[in-house]
Amino acid sequence: MLASSKYLYGTFHDVDMKMADYIAPAREIGFVVNELLDYPRLASLGDFSDATEELTGAILDEAAKFAGQVLAPLNKVGDQQGVRLEGDTIKTPDGFADAYQLFVDNQWLSLAQNPQYGGQGLPFLIHLAAAEMWNSACTSFALCPMLTAGGIDALAAHASDELKDKYLPNLITGKWTATMNLTEPHAGSDLSTLKTRAEPQGDHYLIKGQKIYITWGEHDMSENIMHIVLAPMVDAPAGNKGLSLFLVPKFLLNEDGSPGARNDVRVISTEHKLGIHASPTCVMGFGENDGAIGYLIGEPGDGLACMFTLMNHARLEVGLQGVALSERAYQDALGYAKDRVQGRDAETGESAAIIQHADVQRMLMSMKSLTEAMRGLTYDGAFAHDLRTHGKDEDEKRHFNERFALLTPVVKAWCTELVNEVTSTGIQIHGGMGFIEETGAAQHYRDARITSIYEGTNGIQANDLVGRKLLRDQGAALGSYLEEIIETAERIESQEALKPIALKLKSAVENLQSASRYILENAKSNPKFVGAVAYNYLMMMGYVAGGWYMARAAEKAVAELGGSDKDFYTRKLASANFYFAQMLPRYKGYQEAVMSGAEIGVSLGEECF
Questions:
Q1: SS3 call for 344
Q2: pLDDT tens across 70-116, in order?
Q3: Which residues are paired to 281 by β-bridges?
Q4: CA angle at residue 245 from 240 to 251, to 5 degrees?
Q5: Low-confidence ranges of the chain (pLDDT < 50)
Q6: Do 263 and 249 touch, CB atoms closer than 8 A?
Q7: pLDDT of res. 10
Q8: Which of 8, 77, 183, 376 falls between 20 and 30 A from 592, CA-CA?
Q9: Is 407 exposed, middle or buried, given 0-12, 13-18 or 19+ CB atoms closer than 10 A?
């Protein structure tokens, strides 16, 4: 487990901490893990028998320190300096390489990894909670271990034992990092047209081609980089069925497993981006000379299925970025609203901080309640992942595998749509100061904008939810999820303080069921139907699902209002009531767009524009 004696955070940076203040919301995160979700259920599983609430609480406390003291001061530095290409490598901003070494020394990436290869064997939920803090503190930095974790998943699920033994231990420690290589200049979401090719040569393959938008494709923070590359073999059939997945190391390994000769893979250029300036986005060249040596992951032709293991991990954590950046923007906006004196109090007529103005309170509470709803949904996705992989029996694993599949596109898309709103609202609260870079509010907005684009645009996520989840099982997984929401609504309806919430939640579920039936009945009416309704349906489901977590939060809050933590639960209840009064009603507009707007959607053609 983590050795707290390694932490030397307080003296790590000589920077102005006023520009880097971030306090991890430990109480909020602990509430979701231990009260909103059933953490004891995870801890009771044999694989997690050592993962006591006390132990995981101590780990998350240290994660909070690391986020606040090491990573948060890097956020503005990284945004201002960016990365720079020098020959065959990329130089990261000041402090990044040292911070990453601390990250490795303290075993942060190993939290939820397999002990067989050096992991700590904790629930993925705990990793996700820690990762929220790192993403809030410095999203650019957190992207590097996020992709490495996804690469670990792909290797662990599909690679041969030989590849696992060679590469997983150093990936799990973070000593080596990993990337995901899909996109090419001519091929974005349509991977069936990839031009990169793999030619078999003995026990390996020679990879030749070019990949673009490769996050952390080259850098100076680790001694080796493992590129996970999707490509067809030279004789493969056309289309997705011809794709295979390969491990292409930056440095080939010596007999003793140490990095040796440089492989034929090079960074060609880096992109100049709107945000996440400290996260290098690379154009990578494979095999410009003799060919880049790569090793097959899984079976030939199974590349896309293998890659989806990595992508689904990344999609959940990109949704988490939405939570994390929303939390950071909220903290900054709240602090500014308490300090900024402007105008007069509506009741006393005296000069007032802007937090006393009703409209500013509305904006702050919209940021707070949406962030809490997103956190509940995202953490529940991680909870489902733990039970689908470590459940007590096959029926439980199957149930939560379906739940994880259902929630993943909603987590990714709904949370990343909302983070663009929340970070924009943060700028609005700052007023003119938000539009300039000094306060940092603009950086959160810029950093957040990519989240709805990468790891599959939100339109792709919506099509996945409708086309591959709702239609494939005719709403069975969704029906099971909605049954649990209705059970919550019926349970709390008898409590006077919660009855309004319960009634609104039941009505929302009934309307989501109506929209789902409408889609199931009309999906075959027109080839464009699914694409015309999918986005609005996903957003509708997001708001209804968010309502479930907020209702459960309200139930816990009412039960604890008489206890020692009254102030926290009072705020929690206020947030839930605000969500149901002003955020949840948004679903009705999306429902109308699904059920009454499909006709105009399918009738649109190029001539309309």
A1: strand
A2: 999 999 999 999 999 999 999 999 999 999 999 999 999 999 999 99
A3: 215
A4: 150
A5: 1-20
A6: yes
A7: 43
A8: 376
A9: buried
Radius of gyration of the chain (CA): 24
Tokens coding 534: 């999918």
Q: For residues 391 and 225, what is the distance between their CA atoms, to the nearest angstrom?
A: 33
**Is the CB of residue 445 less than 8 Å from the CB of residue 367?**
no
CA distance 91 to 86: 7
SS3 225: strand
Q: What is the 3-state secondary structure (H, E, C) of 452-509?
A: HCCCCCHHHHHHHHHHHHHCCCCCHHHHHHHHHHHHHHHHHCCCCCCHHHHHHHHHHH
The amino acid at 145: P
Choose among 411, 403, 250: nearest CA to 324. 411
pTM: 0.96
What phi, psi does 251 have (nearest 5°)? -115, 130
Tokens 């792709």, located at residue: 460
- Give catalytic residues, as residue numbers: 455
Q: 3-state class of 351 per DSSP?
A: strand
What pLDDT is recorded for position 21? 86
Q: Which two tokens stand for residue 65?
A: 């320190």
The whole-angstrom distance between residue 98's C-alpha and the CA centroid of its chain comes to 25
Gap between the Cα atoms of 411 and 132, Å rounded = 14
Q: Residue 418 has which token pair?
A: 């909302």
Structural tokens at position 479: 């029906």
Neighbour tally for 502: CB within 10 Å:
22
DSSP single-letter state for residue 11 = G
Q: What is the DSSP letter of 233?
A: B
